[in-house]
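Sharing a chain and its predicted structure for anyone who wants a worked example. Both blocks are below, sequence first, tokens second.
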Amino acid sequence: MKKTFLFVLLMCCFAGVAKAQNIQLHYDLGRAMYNSLEDRPWVTTTVEMFKADKWGSTFFFVDMDYTDKGVASAYWEISRELKFWKAPVSAHIEYNGGLNYINNAFLAGPAYNWNSADFSRVFGVQVMYKYIQKNDEPHNFQVTGTWTINFCQGKYTFSGFADFWREKHFDVHGNEHNYIFMTEPQFWVNLNQFKHVNKDLNLSVGTEWEMSTNFATRNGFYYIPTLAMKWTF
């Protein structure tokens, strides 16, 4: 629900057409698919903000998970992209953190971005040092890839990110793991790009597929889809 927004807006900013924020609502199907996720919340909201300036850009997002008793967990990332030169490589610094035993993480490294001439296709790669506070082995790395493809005259968007990082941790059964892979491709139908729909109706409907290996306390591969709506401001 997260990193693709930053990359797309960074590219759009260079074209002078950036939109600053969106809010997403996801109905999570994880607990319906896995007995081990029976306590997983059904609903997640994501709020994202992006702002560019002459020295680069700032981005953050906040995820909040809900049960019938209220907010069950929260997670946020904030990053600063520095690029006041013409080369396609930017300097990237980032903080990740949240509730429910999520350790603070600090990241830094170069970011390479590419876009087609009409910005219908954008791709990026970040290679970062990752310091995870209070981890038994705090010095780690993370590689992130992002993509966005708009097609059919902007009616549809296929976007997402993929993370691979090192982090010593243990799953629910006590097995030790050192590497985590996660990807969250999204598919959106952008309603205001269709004929007879008001252009100011900035609503998209779609889905997100969270796919991960050894993430958090899970052992092995998990596939968790959502049904989603997004409003872009």
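Comments welcome. The first strand starts at residue 21 and ends at 28.
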